[in-house]
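Dear colleague,

Thank you for sharing your sequence with our group. We've completed the structure prediction you requested, and as agreed, I am returning the results in plain text so they can be pasted directly into your records. Please verify that the sequence below matches your submission; if there's any discrepancy, let me know and we will rerun it promptly.
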Amino acid sequence: MEKWSLMTITVLLGLTVRWTVSLGSYSGAGKPPMYGDYEAQRHWQEVTYNLPIRQWYFNTSDNNLQYWGLDYPPLTAYHSFLCAYVAKLINPDWIALHTSRGYESQPHKLFMRTTVFVADLLVYIPAVILYCFSLKETSTKKKVSSALCILLYPGLILIDHGHFQYNSVSLGFALWGVLCLSYDWDLLGSVAFCLALNYKQMELYHSLPFFCYLLGKCFKKGIRGKGLVLLTKIAGVVLVSFAVCWLPFCTDMEQIMQVLRRLFPVDRGLFEDKVANIWCSLSVLIKIKEILSPEVQLKLSLAVTVASLLPTCVKLLVQPSLRGFKFALVSSALSFFLFSFQVHEKSILLVSVPVCLIINEIPFMATWFLLVSTFSMLPLLLKDGLLLAYAVTTLAFLSVCVASFSIFEKTSAEDLQLKPFSLSLKGYVSWFKAFPKIVRSLFLLSITLMGALSLMSAAVHPPQRLPDLFPLAVSVLSCFHFLLFFVYFNVVILWDSKNSKGQKKIS
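Please find the predicted structure tokens below.
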């Protein structure tokens, strides 16, 4: 009973923070003609409600794709239609075709904020609570602490309830998939991930770990026996899930191809804005977009992404374990974010949520990563007028993590899951005696740099010759962090001796 009482308080606290952030500004507020993501979501409601399905993804006189054309999979479109149906009952002007473009009012803001709040409450938050309850060999206090830290992660709150998006839906479905797989409900887990992928195509960041884990599990069960049966069932469930989601668009091949063209617009370039990935950071020294053609950029990013993914995915395929699966979700998403084509700054959330899932195992490194991920989106948050929300939620999150997990006491090689790696170094093991102190010093230096750059970005005007100085500095500093985290997570996965225990359990 006490466990549920504590978890209820945790959820209420998470909801309170979300609603408080939602009272602030949003993307593109009062900034015609394009406004921002808030208007994009409203416009999708206008389009899906007023136009027949066959026109949703096509450029027509009633649907100008240059003005926030729908570029997410069918489930997002259905969700927009559902929200539009409710909006029509409250005030038809909110989604009136053509005349509602750029509509802004306090009642409409309240409605839009409520749709995100309800989606979070129905999909993401229940998955977080049940996931934390499912953690094995974990005390009640640690389960509640994990839930509190995950629900107070500022990055997702600021983007969904501040900037304005529905990331919690796709991430929530993916989390339901992880939860189902942890209970060996492989078919339900497959359905949940299909829903995530059909809500946002960026869930491809997580697709390889899901694929490798389930395929590896089938191999371990015997590909000619129970494994083949399981593989057949999973394949059938995936095909049916996709068929149901895409059914209205399966009237002809041109419909399907047009949706796919909208989902994967390769003509947008290697990266947009000042995103904290390797291509944007390298462009400071090497103008990649000018030197290489778009086709070569696409091939290069694909090759580097695949190469960076292979080691962890191959290990997961050969040694499938739930622990390895969760770490592979982090590594895979981070590979996509750092090296893939057409990355947005908000895509770091696809790395952050899997990191949240392992915060009880490596609280120090998880907390550090989640702080950096929020900092990496600072230019976007400043543009949306969310500086105060950013500062308060970030400090609150850091305080909760320090109080809940005593993170500064969890910096030994063993606490950071680096003991197998340190033992493999043999003659250099003595260096690890000073490791906790070094890691703590680096963390404090990192926090200081991020804090100073946050203050400068908010209070200091950049030189006229370098208007993007601070956004670029944020991106480069964040990218440097992410590269180090990428190496760290891969070391933990590849030297992990605990995976063999999970492998035996699956067998």
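Summary note from our side: The chain is about 70% helix and 0% strand.

Kind regards,
the structure core
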